């Protein structure tokens, strides 16, 4: 397994644990709210920010395992060279989109860091720069995975499923 695939799997594992902990927090909040009329403080802020983080921790694994949404119901009917050309085009587009996303969040991340930007009022204040950092890192890793798959496609190895 390559170094990038280890990172992909590691981040996927972190996101799975995070999602489980989020389920525990939601359960505690609902139970506290229903039984004791005392909700868990900061649950909304934790959930809102965690959803984005969990998604971007998983994105590179989804790309590499070819789990991204793909409409290939017609592609398999095309000649092999056309299929390969479409796959190359798809990998290039995926790499470009995620590279642009990574670039687009760098400035807001820096601004959030220098200004001390946070989300949430009162009960729990969550700094936003780490969320931007996860988006940038996840997008960069997704772009790298698309480029990795592009090289495999051009070398006719096709890549093995993760």
TrEMBL record:
Keyword Cell inner membrane on entry: yes
Residues passing through the membrane, by range: 7-26, 46-64, 85-106, 126-148
Subcellular location: Cell inner membrane
Residues of the Tripartite ATP-independent periplasmic transporters DctQ component domain: 22-155
Protein name in UniProt: TRAP transporter small permease protein
Matching InterPro entries: DctQ, TRAP_DctQ
Stated family: Belongs to the TRAP transporter small permease family.
Gene Ontology CC: plasma membrane
UniProt cross-references to Pfam families, sorted A to Z: DctQ
Topology versus the membrane: Multi-pass membrane protein
Keywords: Cell inner membrane, Cell membrane, Membrane, Transmembrane, Transmembrane helix, Transport
Cited function: Part of the tripartite ATP-independent periplasmic (TRAP) transport system.
A Gene Ontology molecular function term of the record: transmembrane transporter activity
Subcellular location, principal: membrane
A Gene Ontology biological process term: C4-dicarboxylate transport
Known partners and oligomeric status: The complex comprises the extracytoplasmic solute receptor protein and the two transmembrane proteins.
Domain of life: Bacteria
């Amino acid at each position: 397994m390559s170094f990038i695939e280890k990172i992909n799997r590691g981040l996927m594992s972190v996101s799975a644990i995070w999602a489980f902990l989020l389920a525990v927090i939601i359960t505690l909040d609902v139970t506290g709210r229903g039984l004791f009329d005392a909700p868990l403080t900061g649950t909304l802020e934790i959930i809102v920010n965690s959803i984005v983080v969990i998604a971007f921790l998983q994105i590179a694994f989804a790309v590499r395992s070819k789990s991204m949404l793909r409409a290939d119901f017609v592609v398999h009917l095309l000649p092999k060279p056309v299929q390969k050309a479409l796959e190359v085009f798809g990998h290039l587009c995926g790499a470009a989109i995620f590279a642009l996303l990574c670039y687009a969040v760098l400035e807001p991340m820096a601004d959030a860091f220098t200004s001390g930007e946070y989300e949430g009022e009162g009960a729990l204040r969550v700094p936003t720069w780490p969320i931007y950092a996860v988006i940038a890192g996840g997008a960069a890793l997704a772009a790298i995975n698309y480029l990795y798959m592009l090289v495999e496609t051009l070398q006719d190895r096709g890549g093995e499923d993760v």
